[in-house]
Amino acid sequence: MPATMYCWKYVELRPRRDLRGINGGFAQSERFYWHRVDLTPSLDDLFASFHKNHVARKIRRSERENLVYEDGSSDRLLQSFYQLVLKTRRRHRLPPQPREWFRALLDCLSDRAKVRVAFKDGVAVASMLTIRDRNTMIYKYGASDADYHSLGGMQFLLWRTIQDAREQGCVALDLGRSKVDSLGEVAFKDHWGAAREGLVYWRNPVAGEANSVKRMGGALAGQVFAVLPARLLIAVGRGLYRHIG
User: Which domain holds residue 81?
Assistant: First the structure.
């Protein structure tokens, strides 16, 4: 049988440490912040470090609204999470990841991954998927219903996640990366007292073709994704994400 031939368009390095001075034709391609919350202080001290208006008051509001918290890996919770993923991705004018991807994560990491959902009167208003890696809790995916943002559902879930992480012996909450020019996302993570660290991605050749998500993320595609029926949006996501590394 003939050998399979692969044609690489570019190579990208995504180190946690600064590689300034690297040679071999690599140059900076993208810059991010990486956000991490230290969980070693007491819960009282952690709560006091949160932004008064954007976090602390939202958590108190969620308590007054009697939001209900559930976590686990059941199909019911996954479905609640995925319906919010659909709403969030449509809001961002992007197709959703396949539901099967989240199911596979929960099944493969059964003792470390879980879905967390906040309900208001039986309606899912916010949700996230977290993964525990040794002594770090990782916030991997989040989704919400914009009609209920005033209730503080995401703040409620993150606060419960912090408490759960500490009970499991975690010393840090990893909030992931943010693009340096994504001011809203950066501010949201700063409001939790997260420390920032710069991340630089390196590419060779630097002018390599953009990845699939960026290519299809133009204005026209975004407008289409914003109005596609849910079943078609799901189909687009299922077809697209199998080709994304």
Answer: 38-177+208-241
Per-residue b or e along 207-245, where b marks 16 or more CB atoms closer than 10 Å to that residue's CB: eeeeeeeeebeeeeeeeebeeeeeeebbebbbebbeeee
Q: What is the pTM of this model?
A: 0.79
For residues 81 and 104, what is the distance between their CA atoms, to the nearest angstrom?
Answer: 14
Beta bridge partners of 179: 32
Give tens-digit pLDDT for 50-105. 999 999 999 999 999 999 999 999 999 999 999 999 999 888 777 888 899 999 99
Partners of 128 in the β-ladder: 116, 142
Number of domains within the chain: 1
The domain that holds 121 is classified in CATH as 3.40.630.30
From residue 74, how far is each of 102, 113, 232 by CA, in Å? 12, 12, 25
